Amino acid sequence: MLKGARKHEEDIRRRIYTGYRILRNTYLYSERLRLIGVTDLIAIDPSNDAIIVELKCGNVNAKKIRDSHKAQLACQAMLVEDVMGLRVRCIELLNLTTWERKRINITHYHRDMVSKALNDMRLIVVNEIFPDLAEKSGKCVDCEYRKFCWDLM
Ligand code: SF4
Question: Which of 140, 150, 153 to mutate to test the pocket of ligand 1 (most atoms within 8 A of CB)?
Fold first, then answer.
């Protein structure tokens, strides 16, 4: 498995990010942001600018990227900047079978979404508030909190 992972890493560097330093599965924790995350891949160029790469097996250009997904990527950008002190130049989705790439623009709007969500979550924990049910109940089907939210105890 290790050999396979290294080979894969070499392929990515050779085909896409030539000259970049590649970091796979980086665990990041920021006390200041009170945020934890794991990135699929970080490509760092010689001037220490980083590209955060999310690895995919499906078509990366097929559908519109939702704001919630962009907020998740904004979390990763904020973590990399805060913990590693790198400037995040952009975020990309990379299809590992076709090598297609899609560049995602993360704006202040998405960073603000993250800050607001973190504040809301802290308030929920501190004040022991029960959050509203998800707007789409399909998300609840295999959620581990289902028995609490749906009062199934
Ligand atoms: S069951 Fe899970 S997805 Fe559904 S509302 Fe509760 S926490 Fe959200």
Answer: 140
